[in-house]
Design a protein that fits this description.
Number of strands: 17
Strand content: 25-35%
CATH topology of the largest domain: FAD/NAD(P)-binding domain
Number of helices: 6
Largest sheet: 7 strands, mixed
Structural class: alpha/beta
Number of domains: 2
CATH superfamily of the largest domain: FAD/NAD(P)-binding domain
Bound molecules: flavin-adenine dinucleotide
Distance between the termini: 19 Å
């Protein structure tokens, strides 16, 4: 079991990692794509770092983390399950147990489909390697929204799921021959208590499951009962969410969407999480 697991390796996540390690805590930090800051052409408002590109500043942050033996691992966190004193975190099918979790996923760009949230866990899934086995011999749609989708579709067909790949791009050459392909996008998931079909273009395609493989997962879909305000996660001044042991920091907690705020909130979350771990040990 790790002390603190961090979701996202942007400025908030890396700041949290550095501060957790400084407090003597074991850390694992996962990220699945390039962060927001790397896109900034020039940053002038972070104290001590000015007239620099976002990429240059990120490189400095990563260098700092490496110097403290923090290794950012590639992986998308798809689900977090509270277990009383700890959490089971699902990273693309790998399970890690953590005492505390810090969510630092950046601003959420996920726009849920109609029916998606309601049928999550009842046919809607964000991870084929996690839930694929449930649909052996059944029909599943894989919606191509990220580079993982192709691999996940091939995985489903390899375990005996009748997969259909829906993508705006042409049929990928590497897609297994037995996978059906629809050129298009999905606009709705339909079903009363479980997935029955999806709407793609004018068509209604029947299915037992739909794997929605985006780069990001909506905060509320990551952990059941997490309090959100719009697309942001609600936190108090300690960066605690409404779920004890789960923290959030950076753009994901709301405006201003700025580097200095992200770094500060990462620090607060890590220090408070470390303090709580120490308190539990003393008792
Ligand atoms: C073009 C541009 C210019 C900007 N200019 C400035 C500026 O001049 N000054 C300033 O202060 N700010 C600026 N910003 C804003 C700044 O970049 C952000 O405030 C900052 O990056 C927020 O950090 P963060 O760690 O909260 O999120 P992010 O930097 O977005 O990092 C979040 C990370 O989490 C990862 N992630 C998301 N979901 C998951 C998951 N489920 N599993 C694993 N990993 C996940 C993402 O892939 C990403 O790498 C700019 C942003 C942009 C886009």
């Amino acid at each position: 079991m790790v002390d603190i697991l961090i979701v996202g390796a942007g400025p908030a996540g890396l700041s949290a990692a550095i501060n957790a390690v400084t407090r003597g805590k074991s850390v694992r930090i996962f990220s699945n794509q390039e962060n927001y800051l790397s896109k900034a052409e020039r940053v002038d408002n972070h104290l001590g770092f000015y007239n620099m590109s976002g990429r240059e500043i990120m490189n400095k942050f990563i260098e700092h983390a490496k110097a403290m033996n923090i290794r950012v691992e590639e992986g998308k966190v798809v689900n977090i399950l509270p277990m009383g004193e700890s959490f089971m975190v699902n990273i693309n099918g790998e399970i890690e147990e953590a005492k505390k979790v810090i969510l630092a996923m950046g601003v959420s760009k996920v726009k849920e489909l109609p029916g998606e949230g309601r049928l999550l866990g009842s046919g809607v899934s964000y991870c084929a390697t996690c839930d694929g086995m449930l649909y052996r011999g059944k029909n599943a749609i894989v919606w191509d929204q990220s580079k993982e989708a192709l691999h996940e579709a091939n995985y489903l067909s390899s375990i005996g799921v009748n997969a259909t790949f829906v993508s705006k791009k042409p049929r990928p050459e590497e897609l297994n021959d037995n996978i059906k392909y629809i050129n298009g996008t999905i606009s709705e998931v339909i079903g009363d208590n479980k997935v029955e079909s999806v709407v793609t273009g004018e068509k209604n395609v029947s299915a037992d499951a739909v794997f929605i493989l985006r780069d990001a997962v909506a905060p509320a879909a990551l952990i059941e009962g997490l309090k959100t305000e719009g697309n942001f996660i609600a936190v108090n001044r300690n960066m605690e969410t409404n779920i004890e042991g789960i923290y959030a920091s950076g753009d994901i907690t709301g405006k201003p969407l700025q580097l200095s705020k992200a770094v500060s909130e990462g620090l607060i979350a890590a220090q408070h999480a470390a303090l709580q771990i120490d308190k539990t040990k003393e008792n």
